[in-house]
Write a structure and sequence with these properties.
Strand order of the largest sheet: 5-4-8-2-1-10-13-12
Largest sheet: 8 strands, mixed
Distance between the termini: 100 Å
Number of helices: 10
Length: 667
């Protein structure tokens, strides 16, 4: 039994199924039957904060349980039944339903063993049913590991009710299907029922910003083999009357804030057998990674490293210089395929360099192999990217989806990521700024959490030196200086365009009246250096005249036009990923027969404890106007309690940067 049960265990991250949450105490038991629609369901309407919703999720019910067969051993079965009321045309997309199914490199795969769906419309007081058409079913190969079953319901209108019910059977019992209790539309009811055989011990990860009700946790009888009495642990999780989950700016991923539950196998204990620990502790996880041919075994393959290292290092003895040489070699010889992974796709770095392309794990584990052969102590660091979501913190390997490297030189830690040519040593890409990573010492089977908070910020300096003539044309130079993440972003944007002319065209598209000549960019290929841009410009249509008065907004294209923080309240942290600074220095020489009629007042606005500032001031010297404006946010993460201070700060930014200079013409 034990052998069969574990035959198809594999390390994979099963996708979650979208759904809901609520704060009241919902009833424990509700029953829903496919096709049994109550007329009252057609009367359901959205209200309150969700009054503009495109649909309402009437219910979403999931069941997960285990079966046993002689071919596969234990498998799990996942059933889902979901019903929506469509309120307007924006909800029509819900009638196009997708089911993702995982498949491994061998013959193991998930099967959609049952699917039924229908549309219901109320016509002349009678419910008319439109079943799923045979020609409205499609299968798409998403990638080498996933296929997508697609289903399109007919006759969907405003006021329709649609429902889907399906069943999946899966060999991949290392991670069970989780459940999301909130979605982009309001939900009246969501529940997840799961029955786990007594032989399996799963880690249960509950997260999100609302508490899910857990009314049932009990042992129940279960039969997996004829004549063998067994038990299972039955858990029910449910919520009711949950508002829609709305996107908010500056978050890791909204999935971090969606109340959810996920499962990863910790260990097994079958009758007459010892307990087997799969990843119940960090040492166990690290030991497994050390022995894995696509992780520790990959790093330890040194044949390729031995052959190329002499040509890379060329006798260099300085450790930091050696690290940079090796990092640049990997960057220049391997192209990232835009896929994140924690396991290499091959068992030997040589294969990756021969292909010249690979995932993040292919590239960064190959980097670690070279560093190891160069006798530079470096360690893999497991990460969960921002889009993948926050790692819960306890031993859970499936919650990681990426790996980078770290080394310490003297007293400085250098994170290393060779997937982007423009990433200097010590700097992580935006997606990897998830606040912490888990470094692994494979040799000593140890590890610990490391802060990945950036040591560099994003800094942008704008310098305008302009002359205003009587025709209201501005002529002069613009210089822009970018550091840290601002420089990384600019380099990436520049490289994505086909040529400089296309880049300039894109730069101008939201800047009315701007014409550019003599554009120059310096240090594009030197990520350790200040990235500078300079250009000659002519700017029209940015000055207004009324009688003998001339109105001018001096920050021109750089002013902040709207406050991104518009919600009256926010439950989630504000996560910028990195601190940032923006400085503006505008100098304008104006005609001799102009004089200042109105000059805005400068000011400085500060968050408490020096967490951020905004300052703006104006100086007149003869016929020259000088404006300085600076925004500085000094940390990457602000709590929901600090949200109102941020909102007030940016309200001041929008208002003050929009204030106009008023010139008066001499008569």
């Amino acid at each position: 039994m034990q052998k069969n049960a574990l035959r198809f265990l594999t390390l994979m991250l099963c996708f979650g199924v979208s759904t809901l949450y609520a704060q009241n105490n919902p009833p424990v038991k509700r029953e829903f039957k496919f096709g049994k629609i109550a007329p009252a369901e057609f009367e359901v309407k959205a209200s309150g904060q969700d009054s503009s919703a495109s649909a309402i999720k009437l219910f979403d019910v999931g069941d997960c349980y285990f079966e046993y067969n002689n071919n596969d051993g234990f498998i799990y079965v996942f059933e889902r039944h979901i019903r929506y009321k469509i309120l307007n045309k924006n909800g029509y997309d819900l009638a196009n339903f997708n089911v993702e199914l995982y498949k491994s490199s061998n013959s193991a795969k998930e099967d959609l063993s049952y699917m039924d769906a229908a549309t219901y419309n109320m016509v002349d007081g009678k419910i008319m049913t439109s079943k799923l058409n045979k020609d409205a079913k499609f299968t798409e190969a998403f990638n080498k590991n996933y296929i997508i079953k697609k289903f399109a319901l007919p006759n969907v209108k405003e006021g329709s009710i649609i429902e889907f019910k399906y069943k999946i059977k899966s060999n991949f019992i290392f991670t069970l299907r989780g459940w999301r209790f909130q979605s982009s539309v309001p939900t009246l009811w969501s529940e997840y029922n799961i029955r786990i055989p007594e032989y399996f011990n799963y880690k249960i990860n509950r997260s999100g910003y609302y508490e899910v009700d857990h009314p049932v946790h009990e042992s129940v009888n279960a039969t997996y083999l004829p004549g063998v009495n067994s038990n299972a642990i039955y858990d029910k999780y449910c919520v009711a009357n949950v508002p829609a989950l709305r996107d908010e700016p500056y978050v890791t991923t909204m999935d971090d804030y969606n109340p959810k539950i996920e499962f990863e196998l910790r260990g097994t204990k079958f009758p007459n057998a010892v307990y087997i620990d799969y990843n119940g502790s960090w040492p166990k996880i690290i030991s497994e990674l050390a022995q894995d041919e696509n992780f520790g075994g990959f790093i330890n393959k040194n044949g390729y490293a031995k052959s190329v290292l002499p040509g890379i290092l060329k006798g260099e003895k300085d450790t930091l210089a050696e690290v940079k040489l090796i990092l640049n070699y990997v960057k220049n010889n391997l192209k990232w395929d835009k896929q994140y992974s924690k396991y290499a796709s091959e068992t030997n770095p040589k294969s990756i360099f021969e292909k010249k392309t690979g995932s993040s794990a292919d590239i960064n584990l190959a980097l670690l192999s070279l560093l190891k052969e160069a006798r530079i102590e470096a360690f893999p660091v497991l990460l969960s990217t921002r889009e993948n979501g926050e790692h819960p913190g306890y031993p859970l390997v499936s919650a990681f989806n990426n790996v980078i490297a770290v080394t310490q030189i003297q007293n400085t830690l250098y994170f290393l990521d060779a997937t982007d040519k423009d990433l200097p040593a010590g700097m992580l890409d935006y997606e990897n700024l998830s606040h912490q990573g888990f470094y692994i010492d494979l040799k000593n089977t140890s590890g610990n959490w490391l802060s990945t908070e950036p040591s560099v910020s994003s800094e942008k300096i704008f310098v305008y030196s302009m002359v205003l003539d009587k025709d209201h044309k501005l002529t002069g130079q613009i210089s822009q200086y970018s550091k840290g993440y601002a420089a990384l972003s600019l380099r990436n944007r520049y490289r994505k365009t086909n040529n400089e002319a296309e880049f300039i065209k894109d730069f101008k598209k939201d800047k009315t009246g701007l014409e550019i000549s003599a554009y120059k960019i310096d240090n594009l290929d030197n990520p350790d250096e200040l990235l500078t841009e300079s250009m000659d410009v002519v700017i029209e249509d940015n000055v207004e005249e009324a009688g003998n008065l001339v109105y001018f907004t001096p920050l021109l294209f750089e002013r902040t036009k709207e406050n991104l923080f518009k919600l009256e309240q926010r439950k989630f942290p504000v996560d910028f990923a990195y601190p940032f600074k923006e400085n503006y220095r505008i100098t304008v020489k104006f005609p001799d027969d102009y004089e200042i009629d109105k000059l805005p007042k400068g000011g400085i606005y500060k968050l408490q404890e020096d967490k951020g500032t905004f300052a703006i001031n104006y100086v007149i010297e003869g016929k020259t106007l000088m404006v300085k404006s600076a925004i500085s946010l000094n940390k990457s993460l602000y709590t929901s309690e600090e949200y109102f201070d941020l909102q007030a700060l940016f309200k001041a930014v929008v208002e003050k940067q929009a204030e106009q200079i008023v010139f008066k013409k001499k008569v």
